[in-house]
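Q: Can someone sanity-check these two? First one:
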Amino acid sequence: MERRPDSNCSKPEVYCGKVKSQTLSMCDSSRVTPNGVCGPLVAKIPVVLAERDIQIDIDAKIELKEDFFEVKRIKKDVFLTQCELIPTAGRRNPTTGELISGKLFISGYVQKNIEYATAKCVSDEAVSGNIQHTTVKVPFHCVTEVEFERQPVIRFRTTQKEIEFLGNYEKKGKCEEDIMGVTPCQRDFEDEINYTEKPFCELVSARIFEADINKEHSCYEETQEFEKIEEKMVILLRIKILQLQQVNIR
């Protein structure tokens, strides 16, 4: 007798994910003409002091979590953690005393997401494994001279001024004359503190050239795996240095 399938016996559901979506309707919008102030006027705007292409050369060694058979993909991004300009540390015009250049200190890192394949199962005909990934940060530091296209506005703190008041002093002896001079009872001071807008940087673009060399391989009869990656990397950064300045607009 043929056995009929049990209708009460069902396959357990396996949760593989869920998708929830909706179609959005079009919203009405209208064009607005922006209004501005007619010139001539004085505006405080970012002014470009300099724009530089900076080359940074890096030699790095990266050790992954486990031995790898092949690197599949490396995604790279550049981040700056410090970009500080010392405007008065460069050269000056010997005739006018104007600033010609300054020193720019740069720190940052290249964030690299490395996808690589492992060799878990090896035969004469195939190599099988998992795709793993590791994210590392390769740091860099450098200092370069920056020639100004436009002078930075630098205002210094002035020397303190002191006012001393005249006073008369009586002698203890009745027969001696009084002394006239600076009174110790009061002194006035004058300080002038001038504040300067701090120059700041803008990372315009970054180009990376690199060579990845697999190092410290482990040789087996079936296949070959590696433990480390040695990188030769050239980074080209385009950085813009700006400062808020008052500009006459006509």
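And here is the second, same format, sequence then tokens:
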Amino acid sequence: MILFPLLCENCWYLTAHSYIARKHFFTNEENGYFKTRRRMPVLQNSTTIITHVVKSNFINVLPMVVIRGWINWMFSNLVTTNK
């Protein structure tokens, strides 16, 4: 997909025959480069991916929870003593 816009942009630097040959190589319906390229299958319900996401989110949230708890503990008496 990245090469095709470059090919269209630089079509004036190629001969007409070279441009048509390259265009045919990329966009041929039966055996073109974009039609025959294998794509990786999409993983639907992989437990390893879900576990990794949960672990990374927990690691990111844990310091915030600890610091917030410490701040609440330190300043819990501030409101009651200032009245």
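A (reply): Looked at the second one. The chain has one domain: 2-75. Residues 47-74 form the longest helix (28 residues).
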